[in-house]
Amino acid sequence: MKNKQYKAISFAILAAALYAISSPVSKLLLKEISATLMASFLYLGAGIGMAIVGFIKHIKYKERRERSLTKQEIPYTIAMVILDIVAPILLMFGLTMATPENVSLLNNFEIVATSLIALLIFKESISKRLWGAIILITVSSIILSVKDISSFSFSLGSIFVLLACICWGIENNCTKKLSVKDPLQVVVIKGLGSGLGSLIIAFVLDEKTNNIIYIIAALLLGFFAYGLSIFFYIYAQRYLGAAKTSAYYAIAPFIGAGLSLIIFRELPNFSFIIALVIMIIGTYFASTEEHNHTVIIHEHIHSHNDNHHTHSHNEIVIGKHSHIHAHEECNHSHKHREDTHHSYAH
Hints:
- The protein has helices spanning about 1-20, 20-30, 35-60, 75-95, 100-105, 110-120, 130-145, 155-175, 185-205, 210-250, 250-265, 270-290; strands spanning about 145-150, 155, 290-295, 295-300, 320-325, 330-335.
- The protein is mainly alpha-helical.
- Strands 1-2 form a two-stranded antiparallel sheet. It has a two-stranded antiparallel ribbon with strand order 3-6. The chain has a two-stranded antiparallel ribbon with strand order 4-5.
- A hairpin with a 4-residue loop joins strand 1 (about 145-150) and strand 2 (about 155).
């Protein structure tokens, strides 16, 4: 069991590192590929790559262990795909105008967007600790977005990134409705649907590229930084639980910022350092606030080593399994991210 935990820890860190490379490497590829095309290649790479992974898993494991999407999830699936078309395009436009290290840190604004949308639209409550995190992350985002403090003008690139985070904030709340279903199926639909949608928009805008090497690189980046990263995250979560996995994955934006500084050999200015410190504190508060779990009845694959699945079985059950089960109401504090049993807002 310890070997599986060590393997899961390495997968959680790998998931964070894979996602972290997306901003700096995308910045390099945007020299030859337009923003909309780049967004389409990233998601197509994730969708095609994870479809291949799914095919291999189907051959190896004939029995389906996860629950498929149903008609009830169609509205949320459509919204997820549309938002995943818009968000990466905005992010790529932002990357063409802003530094990749700023973009990496600004991605944390997604926490703010997800929380506020959960509050305003889905009527979830927000704890005092999370309000503090929202304020700190927002202040940090403003510092990163200000182009000239003396004239208080905002960077257009940063605004595009923040708009992308808002789109992903809405998308997170939609994806939450699909989180108990087969995650591999969700990633494939997300990747292929959003990738093809962005590709159609790119053709309408007459965006083209003949650089095959850059196209292949973008597809591979999408597979690793988007598709495979999510796959490793889910694997780690099932052996470590939601709490421990999130603690390792929370380093992703800061790895991205560090890689950007190394790759582009740019010394950070004083504003960036201040924003970095504030962002670290805000991210810590967001991932460790005390939260309350109301009674939940749902079905998904799970194990009993994550402090959230404490129900009993009539027979002996070891490892992962799937069945309809209930979670009793409880209040506790630990690090966590958006998943089946947690949202950023509580």
